[in-house]
Design brief:
about 25% helix, 16 helices, about 15% strand, TIM Barrel, Oligo-1,6-glucosidase, domain 2, six-stranded antiparallel β-sheet, 21 strands, eight-stranded parallel β-sheet, binds alpha-D-glucopyranose, alpha/beta, single chain
Length: about 575
Amino acid sequence: MSESHPPRPPARSPVHAAAATDEWWRSAVIYQVYPRSFADSDGDGVGDLPGITSRLSYLGELGADAVWISPFFVSPQADGGYDVADYCDVDPVFGTLADADALIARAHELGLRVLVDLVPNHTSDKHPWFLAALAATPGSPERDWYIFRDPDPADPERLPNNWPSVFGGPAWSKAPDGQWYLHLFDSGQPDLNWENPRVRAAFLDILRFWLDRGVDGFRVDVAHGMIKAPGLPDFAHTAEDLQAGVIPTHAAPFWDQDRVHEIYRSWRQLLESYPGERAMVAEAWVQPHDRLARYVRPDEHHQAFNFAILSSAWSADALRTSITDSFRANDSVGAPTTWVLSNHDVIRHATRLGWVGDEATPQLGTRVPTPNPELGLRRARAATTLLLALPGGAYLYQGEELGLPEVLELDAHVRQDPTFRRTEGAVLGRDGCRVPIPWERHAPAFGFSPSGQSWLPQPTGFGELAMDQQEGVSGSTLELYRALLATRRSRSLGTGALAFVELGEQVVAFDITSEVGVTHVVLNLGVADWPIPAHLQILVSSSPTVTDRLPTDCAVWLADHSA
Ligand code: GLC
């Protein structure tokens, strides 16, 4: 006689406990606006603050909790605004301080928090501080705001050390009088000297200026760069070793030096002296994970971007490892983990994931593989479905909710990223993810600008992806994002606990447990379909055709409503 056993429940391994407190920044979905490319109100072909304000209700309807706005301060735009010439004023191309106030007020009316982008590692070479430094003599207090070095009298062309610029070429350029100055990025972005107490005091004032205007916090640009190793010693490794993670980031004498944390402790104290829950998020491309976790200790940043998933290969193993390692590191310091797939510096994930296997590097290199747009979008939707289920903070980059691809076919003469110029075109750079957003298929510049101008040309294919082509259309990428965000909120996924579930080598599966119940999340990376158990109902699916089987490169959120 055969005995019938109930099916054995799959093994569960808890990885992350539910959040003990619920400050907004522990689980917020933060939408990144790149102002030049979001919405242009005055027809000059460049997006602006009134344009952003006019579209804020769209972000509310999408279900975002906050908006992070890339720099809109006075800037010669040598690096898309990450070269700031006045931290306390708005560049005329983007509007005025009154426009910034109006934007913040409207966002708050809609229940959206606002983070502004603070760029403390370097200024523009047109900043009055740098102009004063150039006008003063070597060794003067004015030069001490930056990192100047005397030329070698025996060999004036010899660089002070071998540090590379992130954008290509050496990290040193000459002032007119022959002294060298350091710039880890473009020559138009001289590095500030954070050993100088005046620099530290000036930035506390800048933080106060924006906190007083009502911002909810800051995204801190290049947060791992401000302190350099004493004596500026040569870099003993290569940029390739750094990129590949062969060495820890702090092995480079210009990144992730321990004393940078003093600065953040003083900023945190300042933020805490303001009412409300103001927050800072660090942009620190630092590995391994436990080094990144140091930026989010309780007296430093509230969050740090976690680029693990963004940099991960499209494999079940790699994704599981990224998730586990990220939680382990951040949980050890009581900080939320954040998740991100796209931003203004990397290839849009709808394109990146359409490249097979190891070619899926986040930065545009010398070689451009041929993307497969259908595969890319299918995987991008699945990746986002995975990402938005994960407890912690999530970042979305403008246009990803429309499934926008990277624009690869931009002519050399329209490209503006300094990387392209500094590598003489060897590295294409980041313009392809910065092409202005299509809002309405049949409007000039797809609704980006009333005049039809656009600082980077939009490809014709953007028309069918325009917001008005997707809004209310079941199965569209926009409606998928809306459903994911609404369900994430209603099921409290952002503050839930996570346990992996074993459903097979090629399946990433986990349960999120919150006060609402258990949400099962499954991403299938195998070739065979994964049969969806009959007792589970689909809450959201990355592919509109999924019913009882989950095909490859699709993800689903499930719940047992009978339980
Ligand atoms: C950050 C920004 C990037 C900028 C760089 C220099 O990585 O995200 O866009 O080019 O810093 O400020």
